[in-house]
Amino acid sequence: AxxxxxxxxxxxxxxxxxxxxIIVSGNGNQSTFSVILCHDDSLRLFYASDExxxxxxxxxxxxxxxxxGNKKNIDLGWPSGxxxxxPHVISEPDGQLSMTYVLMGGGACVxxxxxxxxxxxxxxxxQPQAYRARLCKHFSGDYLIIFHYRDCNNNYNIYTAMSxxxxxxxxxxxxxxxxx
Length: 180
Prior knowledge:
Layout: E1 5-7, E2 21-24, E3 33-37, E4 43-49, E5 56-62, E6 69-73, E7 84-91, E8 97-103, E9 107-112, E10 124-127, E11 130-137, E12 143-150, E13 156-163, E14 173-174
């Protein structure tokens, strides 16, 4: 299907690669995804899929990059009819995971795992009408989120915001003004 996700893996620093193989397939559209290397050297794939008719975020795990399993539907606390997609996940030094995602009709959101690896269900919206949110963490401990934002004139520009605690975000800083 058009939304399949494939993987190829190198064990020799990119000199050779395995043959591509499907890790997610089916009738759903899996057009947005994020892959991270966890603190235990395992890989985690996070992806959005509309395989059930509504976009939700799922994850799978791998210890070698070739064999994937343990598919999980990520519960972020939203009602069952709410769609969300476009996960971007980072791994914290302590093993905690932090994610940005987009709530359809709601904007850019964030969530984190606790010590047991369970995602919070606080439903934190950083910015309404924001899309393609990406996250990084500065060595100081501050978080930076960057995203496309649609203003009242229906123009898109890139904005950023900072947070010291992940759930309270400073005012927006506009990065571009070309109104794409």
